[in-house]
Amino acid sequence: MNRRGMTIVELLAALVIMTIVASLVAMLIASYRSVHQDITDESKANLESTLLFQSIRNDINAFSPTDYNDCVINDCVILVKTFEYVYLDGSISLNILDPIDTITLEVVDQTILFNNQPYRVEYFSIGQDTTLLYTVTTDTIEIEFNLVLESTENTYYFSMTHSYEIEQIPA
Q: How many domains is the chain built from?
């Protein structure tokens, strides 16, 4: 056995091996951080879209529309309530609204408005491709909302469909 210690070649080999191991560890940590950020962004986007869609559903259901009107612009629907049932003094009565109640749901300049009040979206901006469409059958209106959320690095796409019955004033 050589008692003089390590040779310069052995020291250089050890140094090269340690450099390679350190580089691999640094690459793994950088990769982990990148994947973690992507997962965090996607989770936030899912949460934002879920909260936004639930707020829209809740607002529409609270209004209880019975009909709709066409908007002059795209990405817009006017929901109409012509009557409502009212519980008063132990009985339910029909209340015909005159004038009728209306609310507007629209997408304008990358902002989602419900009766001219914007829905708040944190962490993201609303993309230009966000659309609001509706289709009408004889007794149903179906609102389709295609939401695009944009972060600094990614774009996320979500969709919601909400339908309700078109009702005539009962006789």
A: 1
